[in-house]
Write a sequence for this structure.
């Protein structure tokens, strides 16, 4: 059994190394060219139509507001990886990994835009009158490939069990270490909180994440900015490290063991992709419920999601770790996940460690809430609303089991299960790329959408 698990681990590590990273990068570049560099050509317009419109009544039809759809999607992506994953990328890939994290984020915007546009384009109403959509719907309706949609839905529904167990274990371990509460107690409390929210459906989840995500992100990023201000003289050096060692190997320095350029690119790409989930097919499940007058308008919100998740939150972590110097201290390589806590503690004392701990708890909790919703939507697609209700209890049990470290063996299959949903989703995006391109051209050439929007701005000025 141990040898079998070792083989699974080796296969997963290889698969999520160059093979999938290359596939994702090429797919992202292809969509970027297909969309004529949308994310680079319209940055001001994108922010005007998203963050700049949060106090305006959304146009069109939907179940939740565009902001609620975005914050629900962000709840899944802003998690432990933003706090503990970034320092790991720096320790194993060097400071230059941050540059490649930015690059893959910019490329990944086209994939995230495409899958969110398709989710709205092929969404439908369920028996409760809620809008539902995602890869399983655009595979079935857009490609007429019901089997592929069924495969995606079933694979994601099952994959979320070990994923939720890992998340439950992460938050329970953090609570135990910081507050000395037994894992099963914290796991039960977390499961109860999650149940109160997820059984209220996407409307309740949207209302909670709308308040929750901006608050927790502002607290964490705000603390990171304070660290940068306190250490402002180090910022030029941090930028020098990031840009210089993105293209050349870095030798050993203190607790840092040194790294080759190939590993720098690999770790940067991997961290960016794991963090923002571009191409994975999860975020469009949330975006499909948004109130909008055109699929492309909601696609713009998904671009902003990557800006917030990777370019802001992950970058904040990277700058704190690099500017504080904790990454070069002796023993840093032994526990990279602790470096963010060490950096904040260096500047805020015990309060710094508490900021990281509380941020981690809330980030992971919000992730669990939304991925339980994602799993329920897969069950609904496959078997109906009753199955969606029942699977939530399975996920709640997984939180508690994970919090006490049960069934760690199945965690080994997590990366393989992720590949099982990623690959069919990428296939669907590429096969439907012409439809995404058509919708994009329609939006940006129509008097009803883009031309009308910029006409208003011209008159206002």
């Amino acid at each position: 059994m141990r040898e079998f698990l070792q083989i699974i681990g080796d296969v997963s590590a290889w698969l999520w190394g160059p093979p999938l990273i290359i596939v994702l990068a090429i797919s992202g570049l292809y969509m970027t060219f297909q969309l004529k560099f949308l994310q680079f050509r319209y940055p001001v317009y994108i922010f005007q139509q998203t963050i700049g419109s949060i106090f305006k009544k959304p146009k069109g039809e939907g179940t939740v507001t565009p902001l609620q759809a975005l914050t629900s999607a962000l709840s899944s992506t802003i998690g432990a990886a933003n706090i503990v994953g970034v320092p790991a990328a720096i320790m194993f890939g060097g400071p230059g990994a941050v540059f490649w994290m930015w690059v893959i984020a910019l490329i990944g915007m086209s994939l995230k835009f495409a899958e969110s546009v398709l989710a709205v384009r092929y969404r439908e109403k369920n028996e409760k009158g809620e809008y539902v959509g995602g890869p399983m719907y655009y595979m079935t309706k857009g490609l007429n490939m019901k089997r592929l949609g069924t495969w995606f839905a079933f694979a994601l529904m099952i994959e979320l069990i070990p994923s939720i167990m890992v998340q439950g274990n992460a938050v329970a371990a953090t609570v135990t270490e910081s507050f000395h509460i037994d894992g099963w107690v914290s796991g039960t409390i977390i499961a109860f909180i999650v149940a109160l929210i997820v059984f209220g459906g996407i409307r309740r989840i949207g209302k909670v994440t709308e308040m929750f995500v901006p608050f927790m992100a502002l607290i964490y990023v705000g603390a990171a900015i304070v660290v940068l201000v306190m250490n402002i003289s180090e910022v030029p050096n941090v930028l020098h490290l990031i840009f210089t060692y993105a293209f050349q190997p870095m030798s050993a320095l203190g607790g840092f063991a040194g790294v080759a350029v190939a590993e720098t690119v690999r770790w940067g790409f991997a961290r960016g992709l794991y963090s923002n989930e571009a191409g994975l097919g999860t975020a469009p499940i949330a975006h499909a419920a948004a109130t909008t007058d055109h699929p492309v308008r909601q696609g713009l919100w998904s671009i902003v999601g990557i800006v917030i998740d990777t370019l802001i939150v992950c970058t904040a972590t990277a700058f704190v770790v690099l500017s504080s110097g904790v990454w070069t201290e002796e023993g840093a390589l032994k526990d990279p996940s602790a470096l963010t806590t060490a950096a904040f503690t260096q500047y805020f004392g015990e309060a710094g460690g508490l900021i990281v701990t509380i941020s981690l708890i809330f980030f992971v909790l919000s992730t669990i809430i939304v991925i339980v919703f994602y799993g329920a939507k897969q069950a609904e697609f496959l078997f109906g609303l009753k199955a969606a209700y029942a699977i939530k209890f399975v996920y709640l049990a997984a939180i508690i089991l994970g919090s006490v470290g049960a069934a760690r063996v199945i965690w080994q299959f997590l990366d393989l299960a992720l590949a099982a949903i990623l690959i069919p989703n990428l296939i669907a995006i590429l096969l439907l790329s012409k439809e995404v391109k058509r919708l994009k051209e329609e939006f940006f050439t129509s008097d009803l959408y883009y031309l009308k929007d910029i006409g208003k701005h011209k008159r206002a000025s």
